């Protein structure tokens, strides 16, 4: 099948499709369909002038950010995914297109390949996701010449959230936001990060995870993905119990993924750098949440403690 014919088929079938799932806040739909005997999935995204979200009033800046996120996702699937797929499972891309600001991505249905979404992760699932992240980050550390074309990764970094920053109450975290951001930028070990690593963006087979949804891909440090994933899995006492455990798992897997490419001393230097910034990635996300939804359930005691440690480190500098 040609990619252009497949995209045309998707555009033709949209009005009549009965097998769809809405995307976040009115930004389009996911469609499942069969084409020439293959079970496929199409992600068809648009950006409305106003989002269907009770906590968000869309500014010009946020509108541009959302457009850019879908552009980045298409870029990744079109230009980069193939070089990553041998090390970490990704959707099999059949076609991508930007059709008059309608962003279309077509994939083989990963359920037909033995992967399934889950609503609650057990320890084996968490380890599989940490392994996936480690392998993904390792590729960017070793050989990703295109990572700079995506700009910064994740959806909460300071430069992409001026509206939320302005809404923050005055305080030490707000006044330290630029310092925290600069520390993350100054880290010499930058890689390509997923940017929205949460349980909903992974599917699982019997022995590995598959990652998808790359709207917030870009440059960053790997532990930012680890932090976000853990915040999507645990809260309260569970987060305090498991965060350091799975951070160790992540670094074990990253060491293994880099073993053939880097001397041990270089990996240990990266680990030291990223572990030092562990409190900073939590404080950075904390800053975003306070400006977006200050009663968010992710504002846990663990996050607050990590922010305190981060601010103490800044005060000692």
UniProtKB/TrEMBL annotation:
SUPFAM superfamilies found in the cross-reference section: Protein kinase-like (PK-like)
Keyword Kinase: yes
Transmembrane helix found in the keyword field: no
Aminoglycoside phosphotransferase domain span: 66-258
Keywords, in A-Z order: Kinase, Transferase
Database matches in Gene3D superfamilies: 3.90.1200.10
Source taxon at top rank: Bacteria
GO MF term set: kinase activity
InterPro entries associated with the record: Aminoglycoside_PTrfase, Kinase-like_dom_sf
Name of the protein in its database record: Kinase
Organism annotation: Pseudoalteromonas rubra
């Amino acid at each position: 099948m040609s990619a252009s014919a497949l995209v045309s088929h998707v555009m033709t079938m949209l009005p009549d499709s009965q097998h769809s799932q809405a995307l976040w806040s009115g930004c389009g739909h996911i469609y499942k369909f069969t084409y020439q005997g293959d079970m496929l999935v199409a992600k068809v995204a648009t950006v409305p002038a106003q989002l269907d979200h009770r906590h968000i009033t869309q500014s010009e800046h946020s509108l541009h950010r959302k457009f850019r996120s879908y552009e980045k996702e298409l870029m990744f699937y079109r230009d980069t995914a193939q070089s990553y797929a041998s090390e970490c499972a990704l959707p099999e891309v059949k076609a991508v297109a930007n059709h008059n600001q309608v962003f279309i991505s077509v994939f083989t249905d990963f359920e037909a390949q033995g992967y399934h979404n889950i609503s609650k992760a057990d320890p084996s699932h968490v380890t599989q996701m940490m392994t996936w992240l480690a392998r993904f980050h390792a590729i960017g550390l070793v050989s990703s010449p295109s990572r700079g074309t995506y700009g910064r990764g994740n959806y909460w970094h300071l430069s992409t959230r001026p509206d939320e920053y302005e809404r923050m109450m005055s305080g030490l975290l707000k006044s330290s936001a630029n310092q925290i951001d600069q520390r993350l930028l100054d880290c010499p070990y930058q890689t390509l990060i997923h940017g929205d690593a949460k349980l909903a963006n992974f599917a699982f087979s019997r022995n590995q995870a598959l990652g998808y949804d790359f709207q917030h891909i870009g440059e960053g440090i790997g532990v930012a993905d680890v932090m976000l994933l853990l915040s999507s899995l645990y809260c309260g006492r569970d987060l305090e119990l498991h965060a350091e455990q799975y951070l160790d798992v992540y670094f074990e897997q990253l060491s293994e993924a880099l073993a053939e490419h880097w001397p041990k001393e270089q990996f240990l230097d990266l680990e030291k750098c990223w572990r030092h910034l562990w409190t900073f990635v939590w404080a950075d996300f904390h800053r975003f949440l306070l400006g977006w939804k200050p009663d968010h359930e992710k504002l846990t005691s663990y996050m607050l403690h990590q922010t305190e440690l981060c601010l103490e480190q800044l005060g000692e500098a």
